[in-house]
Design a protein that fits this description.
312 residues; 14% strand; Methane Monooxygenase Hydroxylase, Chain G, domain 1; seven-stranded mixed sheet; Beta Polymerase, domain 2
Length: 312
């Protein structure tokens, strides 16, 4: 789907058709992008379709490319769809002299909310100062989403940390899923930071240096540090889990050892009295009862001993 915001003479208006050759400024937002939509955007803006189609590659890495008449900025943002196993997807910004194209393969609530509120008072500032303000506002929202997401992950880790000593298999599975999510984020956060660094240094044409980019880099550093801490915590919880499993196994083996030792008494006595030789009490009329009483007493002594040792 394509939505277009046109700014001219201090007024903004959403339009269905657009021509970037006129004097107006355009923000072209294309989400849930199909090939038909991408070809239309390419035709209207004269941007190479090859550059536009980057957004369809879900493995696309964050980076910046300066072309002759436009610049390409690829950033990774969080996905909101719960049915997808992916956590992030590429968000592509193409900046020209009088237009900015925002391309996403899936719907992003954050960008849509900014688009919906683009008729507010700050819109004049956005367009008067160039697309740097609009781009920075979108990136701020995307970076803060990372922060909110990691806070949620931190809560999950706290819960698993409290339950680590119980050593439940389902908790270990959750922990591995969290580690995989953190690994996925770490894979792209550093690259996103490099994109912000290029923007802050003013190496992107049509985008001048802006103080918010530097603030974003600081915030991104904090997010990356938080991700590293969470990675270390998950590793520590995994170790606690396996220690708890080992301790539980030791307790089980103690119980088996105690039971085996108790059962060893009647087995030993019965095997001795099963031998075809002269033994004490073998001629006594109550030999069986006497031997059984001895066995029960010995078993009771062993039971009390292991109970006090807390092996049972």
């Amino acid at each position: 789907m394509i939505r277009v915001l046109r700014y001219s003479k201090g007024k903004t208006k959403e339009v269905s058709n657009f021509d970037t050759k006129d004097a107006a400024f355009y923000w072209i937002y294309c989400f849930d992008a199909t090939l038909k939509d991408l070809h239309k955007v390419s035709e209207k803006t004269k941007v190479d379709i090859y550059d536009i189609k980057h957004v369809l590659d879900h493995q696309e890495h964050p980076r910046i490319e300066n072309k002759k008449t436009y610049s390409l900025v690829i950033f990774r943002g969080l996905l909101h769809s719960t049915h997808s196993k992916k956590i992030t997807s590429p968000i592509e910004f193409i900046l020209g002299k009088n237009f900015m194209i925002t391309l996403t393969s899936e719907h992003h609530d954050t960008i849509s909310n900014i688009f919906e509120n683009s008729d507010l008072n700050y819109v004049k500032e956005v367009f008067n100062l160039g697309f740097v303000v609009l781009l920075s506002r979108i990136l701020i929202a995307l970076v803060r989403e990372y922060n909110a997401y990691l806070l949620g992950v931190d809560e999950e880790i706290n819960t698993l940390e409290d339950a680590a000593t119980d050593a439940k298999q389902k908790d270990l599975h959750k922990l591995f899923l969290i580690k995989r999510r953190i690994f996925h984020l770490r894979r792209y956060l550093e690259a996103d930071k490099d994109v912000l660094l290029s923007l802050d240094e003013g190496t992107v044409q049509y985008i001048r240096p802006y103080e918010l980019f530097h603030d974003l880099m600081t915030e991104m550093d904090q997010i990356i540090s938080g991700g590293e801490m969470m990675k270390d915590r998950t590793t520590g919880i995994t170790e606690i889990y396996f220690i708890a499993v080992s301790n539980r196994l030791n307790e089980i083996m103690k119980g088996f050892t105690a039971i085996a030792s108790i059962l060893l008494v009647p087995a030993l006595v019965s095997s001795i009295y099963g031998m075809n030789i002269a033994l004490p009490l073998d001629k006594h009329p109550y030999a069986f009862l006497i031997v059984m009483v001895i066995i029960i007493i010995l078993m009771a002594i062993f039971f009390i001993y292991f109970k006090r040792k807390k092996w049972l």
